[in-house]
């Protein structure tokens, strides 16, 4: 059996403050909050999903805001940079926008592309690259028009404690194609239009630790639950220990940790975020799975207030 993922499904990170996160990812970066729910394993904590107009696979960055969580350390066994992609001519707009919000950034080159690298308020490492490939977002918010908006993920930079083993997993388990090397990074390509170019730091990285400002896991795409069952069998055959399939309401998921320490998830494209809210009001209400509904009022009381708002700089 051989398998191949289309690319990144979503990336999930730890942050501290829910409102500050919403202000940054919606207010500054112009992403849409497509789902406001809870961490099913820690219902006192939000799980916030930001993406394009519907949070399509390959566009969603998600957050667990632990108000009193420890500060993380970025290092081996993590996603080092989460890469957003914007339309081909949009990079000057984003340079101006980051400057407008007093966000320091560095302009770097790799694989004959220009990247803007910067950090969010918790220290999560982000970058923006412009490419023609991939559908434009249809969402506009604040000062970000749809024709300049983030399309979704361009890919990611992985930090590994065993990079050769990580790269082998990308190539021979996930089915990515090895493309080349530049400045100590090895590039792999998946066939999807978004979240399809993944770079691995070829140097062995010292172990990081989870906490605010770090990525918890990176999820890869699969079509549906039948295909996911096949993935689970395949991953097991390759010597990994995937979890049972977990119902995340908007997709189902399996998880396994690859040999370089990075937590991988394989998530289904369906059913998506419109399963329990109409398009017009995505992200507007706290959505709970059925098993938490009896405790809705108690859960709501334990969560901080949260609103999506246009920031002062855009008024």
UniProtKB/TrEMBL annotation:
UniProt keyword terms in alphabetical order: Dioxygenase, Oxidoreductase
Among InterPro entries, the record links this protein to: Extradiol_RC_dioxygenase, Glyas_Bleomycin-R_OHBP_Dase, Glyas_Fos-R_dOase_dom, VOC_core
Q: In what residue span(s) does the VOC domain sit?
A: 7-131, 152-269
Pfam families in alphabetical order: Glyoxalase
The portions of this protein that span the membrane are none
Carries keyword Oxidoreductase? Answer: yes
MF terms per GO, please? dioxygenase activity
SUPFAM superfamilies xrefs: Glyoxalase/Bleomycin resistance protein/Dihydroxybiphenyl dioxygenase (SSF54593)
Superkingdom to which the source organism belongs: Bacteria
CDD domains assigned: PcpA_C_like
Q: What is this protein called?
A: Ring-cleaving dioxygenase
Supply the source organism for this entry: Paenibacillus montanisoli
Native organism taxonomy: Bacteria, Bacillati, Bacillota, Bacilli, Bacillales
